[in-house]
Fold this protein.
Amino acid sequence: MKYLVYFFFLIPFAYSWSQNASIKGLISASGEGIPFVNVYVKGTKNGSATNEEGVYTITNLSPGNYVLLVSAIGYEAVKKSFFIGKDDIITLNIELKPSAEVLDEMVVTGTLKAVNRLESAVPVEVYSPTFLKKNPTSSIFEALQNVNGVRPQINCNVCNTGDIHINGLEGPYTLVLIDGMPIVSGLGTVYGLSGIPNSLIDQIEIVKGPASTLYGSEAVGGLINIITKNALEAPDFFADAFVTGWGEYNLDVGAKVMIGKKTNMLLGVNYFKYDQLIDNNGDNFTDLTLQDRISIFQKWNFKRDKSRLFSLAGRFFYEDRWGGELQWTPEFRGGDDIYGESIYTRRWEILGQYQLPLDEKVMLSFSYNDHSQNSVYGNLPYLADQRIGFSQLTWDKVIGKHDLLFGSALRYNYYDDDTAATQDLRGNQADEIVIPSLFVQDEFKFNKRHALLAGLRYDYDSRHGAIFTPRAAYRFKFSDNDIFRVNFGTGFRVVNLFTEDHAALTGARDVIITEELNPERSTNINLNYLKKIYADNGTFVSIDASAFYTRFSNQILPDYDANPNQIIYDNLNGKSVSKGLSANLETVFTNGLRFLLGVTYQDVSQTENGVTTQQILTERFTGTWNVSYDLRSLDVSIDYTGNLYGPMRLPLISDLDPRSEFSPTWSIQNIQFTYKGIPNFEFYGGIKNLLNWTPNRNNPFIIARANDPFDKNVQFSQGDVIATADNPFGLTFDPSYVYGPNQGIRGFLGMRYTVF
């Protein structure tokens, strides 16, 4: 017995005797030591943080093989294997590389030139592919639901088409770009956010507020710029596939191919399929549109003398989607027996950038897209073709303290459909126009703290004449970590109703255009404050707060209220105002915990004839969150994401309509677990819509008259619906009462494979 006591008594001493080895070294970047770097030996409790010179020391290691984990804010994490023997003291120095999420990332959207985000006079929000991975989706459109102040809006319960709202403004006020080229507008807005593999995205930049001075029409409420990778940053091969419990399948595959010594090509293919008939709310209509979608993306980069830029990209997109009564099949397409909304979309795009072989920095950018849509909404066809060509020449010149940008743009718009939008006394007339533009911008840096940016754009539209859009921005740096910005700008938008408002196509209401519609104009002011805090223990905190005010004149909004059987369009005889406050709080702890919280309060209203009303389908407040935690010892990360939306006014059909006039406060929440313990692989899974929220809660129905979608049994008197025993609420068929997805709780599983 006493020997057993001796044995247990000696264990601590033996354990201590075996742990005399230690490791030390320097963690640096560009030759300079980095303070407060987290250094940890995987599989043990041994760890440390670097001192102010970037030096670390870890003691009490047993002999054996280990992996050293090194992580720091703004740098790529490093795993380094090492062997240590008994009583060894080894030195292991590590050089870190800036990550894609560095705090001082470069942005291009605000000023049409690459500048450090902290130096930009225009506030730009930046989101990396890592952000998109925290809640994997089949399109960027869905992924933006976790961006503060940005909301994907579903516009139809049947076909599930949608648009992007920024600070409460409708989708047509948001311009979508790919690599800085405004190839997407009107008919194709939502399609520009689908089918680009996340692994080919370098970053997404978002500007809130008018940007017409640089980008022209459509950039009234803000813009989203999807920037794709260049070949130096892209993986040699990648594959990302996931499946959900609802039967959704998504596959991203891509590769980098070297063609000779001076040419490389990126290839990305996205395929999405969903073909399950699900009707959880019991209205005999599909809860989620069935879809079959493929997108092929290529980007060519060419090496030139003096590192001049030349890139060329193209994308082909095809989608077949339908929603409607569960009995619908393609033979019912366009008929009035079984209701269905069937949409065939074919779209191709090409865009490029070419730096002219001059001593000055002169850049030619160009894009072209062709969008063809063959749709039927019940028995109402919608056949449309849209072609947009865009070219732009810019000259970037620095003279003393003036950073100048001169530019000229030419835009070609062609649109034709089979609706009243392209009809006049001569019959069908396609809308075709060329809009030339000139713009100039000057950023003057008084000193390190003060900078002033001023810009002016001139557009000529033969239908409306000359249009001027000025803007100004001022940046003041209290310190490198305290920045205050003021932005003032104007915007304009030439309207094409039928490419932007799906409600006009459902056939449920008559479309009334009371006058010739004039271009919308807006004036905006935005105040922004950015604060960064670096704590001594390595914790990082960022606070980004804004106040915004936008006033519209000539705004065109659909009037659902004057006549429940009509949608009336005219220029607003009054004003429309969007104002509010927005704030983001980001915190990163050295233990692997990280969270990003966002809150926006907004008041979006319109005033006409002295009466002010809340804009329809616009929430008063939103909240978003993204909480992540890395279990480093297990190579597992946990991501909890979600959003919260306040009530919004909804379109009712009649005074007797029993559905709620306002939506409730609602939330979509998701959780994901990712395992990264196998080289080149990531395995992930989780649950979407944890609360199983759907908009049919506390509502008798969502789609009005779903049992009679062609209004065959609706009785009218002088154009008004008569309430009958079969139709006690006096309704007609209408799927436009929608503010959120009908898709409930579901699990998902996925895998990523990447080779660099």
